[in-house]
Amino acid sequence: MTKEEERAYWLAWSEVPGIGSVLLQRLQQQFGTLAEAWKASASELGAVEGFGVRLIERVVKMRGQTNPEQLLEQHLVKNPCFWTPADGEYPRLLLEIPSPPATLYYSGLVDLQENYGSKPIVGIVGTRNPTEYGKRWTRKISATLAKHGFTVVSGMAVGIDTQAHRGCLEAGGRTIAVLGTGLDVVYPLSNSYLYKQIQEQGLVISEYPASTKPARSNFPQRNRIIAGLSRAVLVMEAPNKSGALITARLANEFCRDVYALPGSLDNPNSIGCLGLLNRGAHVILSEGHLLEMLGAIPELDPHSALEQPLPALPVPTLEPELAKVLDAIAFEPTPFDIIVQQAALEAGSVSSALLQLELMGLVSQSPGMRYRKLISGR
């Protein structure tokens, strides 16, 4: 079965009312592929935990009315860009959580190094009603992360989310917005211009198809994607009852690091963060302190969670200076000063060359001004 055929079955199963990402995982584990699950008898489906009589009846009805290949063809008219777990480009870190989205729609600039997990993503979340302190520190932290090669992910809500995206964009970095609506529905409307900026400089993603309006139940679901995509989640300001605390809890469940910005006991928006710190979250003491802690996060093995190795990139013909810098970089993260020493060039020339090599997709930047080679054969 081709990848295109298998993704048609991911879409078809996700269209059955009452079947979410957890049940889809169980189906795949039980039958090997969702295409095989589509052929399963009612009794075979009944052996899967969570499949009761009514749900099986809905499945049987849906199968009688739906041709998965035709459904995919029709769906692509309004939703041309999406990944399923059958796609090699599907974000690796989401495959590690218990409930990866069956469909993940995207718009903007795709960076496959983010999808493969070799470029670190940090989530920033918090209250919709931040203080000036929370706004200021969110912008500072987001800009610092952007300048040091991190991608910032948030939910494009008003408040902390907005400040996180803006701080990253203003610093020239990449940011990802995870929506609780379809990609063609901007919510809140006040962030329409921000939405356009993110599309031009980063990525907008959602598990909801086009035309999906905002609904209260969508946003906790959206939060699990933020947590799942991130190597670490930062909570900047959050009251005791906050969606940001849901994201932090999910991050803990997914074995991600959680960091919190300390605040005053007199500020209700700091109580959630102080509670996180009391339960073992890492404290953010400064931009440098945060970078130091994030730099200690173990590097991901780019092959360990992929059924196939990353696609081999052709080795282009490079100008002599670019070739020198590329030759000075190892496949393991190499510190900037070592690259300068090995290449025997001025630091400014090396910095310029590294930027060009990154844009060409030949190297990626890791925390702490370290770089790793992404191609073989040189």
Structural features, described:
With 378 residues, the protein is α/β, with parallel strands linked by helices. It has helices at 3-14, 21-31, 34-39, 42-46, 53-65, 68-78, 112-115, 132-147, 160-170, 192-201, 218-229, 243-253, 271-278, 287-295, 320-327, 336-343, 347-359, and strands at 82-83, 104-108, 121-125, 151-154, 175-178, 203-206, 232-235, 257-260, 282-283, 334-335, 363-366, 370-373. 44% of the residues lie in helices and 12% in strands. It has a 9-stranded mixed β-sheet with strand order 1-2-6-5-4-3-7-8-9, with helices on both faces. Helix 12 links the parallel strand 7 and strand 8 (257-260). Helix 15 packs across helix 17 (347-359). The protein is globular and about 70 Å long. The two termini are 36 Å apart. The model is unreliable at 303-313 (pLDDT under 50).
Would you spell out the secondary-structure blueprint of this structure?
Elements: H1 3-14, H2 21-31, H3 34-39, H4 42-46, H5 53-65, H6 68-78, E1 82-83, E2 104-108, H7 112-115, E3 121-125, H8 132-147, E4 151-154, H9 160-170, E5 175-178, H10 192-201, E6 203-206, H11 218-229, E7 232-235, H12 243-253, E8 257-260, H13 271-278, E9 282-283, H14 287-295, H15 320-327, E10 334-335, H16 336-343, H17 347-359, E11 363-366, E12 370-373
Parallel strand pairs: 3-4, 3-7, 4-5, 5-6, 7-8, 8-9
Antiparallel strand pairs: 1-2, 2-6, 10-12, 11-12
Helix pairs in contact: 1-6, 8-9, 9-10, 11-12, 15-16, 15-17
